[in-house]
Amino acid sequence: MERLRRVLFVDIDGVLHRGDSYAGGGRIVSSAPGRIELFEYVPLLDSLLGPYPEVEVVLSSDWSYRFGIEHTRNMLPRSLLRTKVTAATYQGCEDEWRWPRLSRGAQVLDYVRRHSLNHWLAVDDRKDGFERYRDRLIHCQTEVGLGDLTVVEQFRSRLHERFAKPTI
Questions:
Q1: Region for 129 from its dihedrals, namely left if φ exceeds 0, alpha if ψ lies in -120 to 50, beta otherwise
Q2: Which is more confident, 100 or 80?
Q3: Please, what are the domains in the chain?
């Protein structure tokens, strides 16, 4: 049944908020100039995912590897996105210690292979390793994230192409 799963791989930094982040003083803060709210685009992603209740989210972020999936999920604001998170790409990787050194595309594609997925998309500010799968990647610019309307429209279109159920 893995082939029937509909999976969206979601990165955090440079997607759900502008810029990167770092741990400091016992908390995580944005590295973007100015006062940037972490997870500022979660409501937008919620609205994009709303029409696709069967889509699950697999985190493809360094956050999940560093902090663990449960802690990372709990750091997300209460949202549709938070309820859809089911896993992270590093989970079940044969060489988990090697995972951080892989390109982002290799991390995602390893998960896709291990789970025999047919219906998947990724939203990320990294495009390394996705060369043969550009049509499966919604690429954000790190300093803009999902704040780029052109990217959002492409995302909306690709969600429909990949995850809309055919009408009979």
A1: left
A2: 80
A3: 2-163 (3.40.50.1000)
